[in-house]
Please model this.
Amino acid sequence: MDLKEEKIESKEVFKGKILNLFVDTVKLPNGKTSTREVVRHCKASCILAKLPNGKFLLEKQFRYPYNEEIYEFPAGKCDLDEDPMKTAYRELEEETGYQANNIVYLGKMYPSCAYTDEIIYLYYADSLVKKEQHLDEGEALNVYEYSLEEIMNLIKLDKLNDAKSLCALQFYFAKIYKNN
Amino acid sequence: MDLKEEKIESKEVFKGKILNLFVDTVKLPNGKTSTREVVRHCKASCILAKLPNGKFLLEKQFRYPYNEEIYEFPAGKCDLDEDPMKTAYRELEEETGYQANNIVYLGKMYPSCAYTDEIIYLYYADSLVKKEQHLDEGEALNVYEYSLEEIMNLIKLDKLNDAKSLCALQFYFAKIYKNN
Model:
């Protein structure tokens, strides 16, 4: 089945601080037209970071859309034209105070493919050295150390729900983790 | 550290077919005010469905925000007030033609917690029986059967990037999968 949709027209309906919103008119594979509501968002990076003690850095942040504090691995938006791996080094140190001497690319994920173009690049980091945490103005988060077993328990209890963190773990298991 | 942000004001800036966009003013934990751009979106369900031959149902769909055909497990938006498990049964049959006699809840995921309130409920299905596919008007997708090994290879090759699908797999490995 031919699947491709072609852009006929694009209209920006909102220009914001962290996202822009477009309503595009498209031609469907069946020849009819439809509209697509698309959030345009910058790239971001997320880091699964392993400490020398074997535990992983996990954060808790209040996330306004859910009115809830949630568990997440360290992450942040790429600055304009910033390489996502550089973002990974930078955000890990800013948010947790740990500098990584080794970061490996795991894969990329598409958060919600129907309406946003955001791509989050996922990394694994180790050889961490403690430096200084330096949060952005207004940024508030708590940092924890969890073993892999504790993280798997959070998943079993449906208490780790952040997509980028779950995806980073899935790539880690597919590409890096060795069971002893 | 106190993390909670309090809503001071909420302004709807766009009302669409599949999403609404709000710009809210919030009081931060440090007492200052800031704004939050929030996409409000309906709930959705995603299904990791295992066939009697041991393979899993995988789809390829053109996703306009990425201008790309991507791999995904069957999924769809919940109708108004529809129970997400009912959505899972309905969407699986509509998109793939398979009726499940057993669906198990895996967990829920938050696609991009900084700016959308969408929740995608993840399910595992088996005991599948072939019925009729009946796609929505304008919906175009191809359905494939992949072994778990083939799916893990897609991940290793960075070719399975859809967040809900990767998260469903991660919950499946944490809660259901037994390594013989």
In short: DSSP finds three helices and ten strands in chain B.
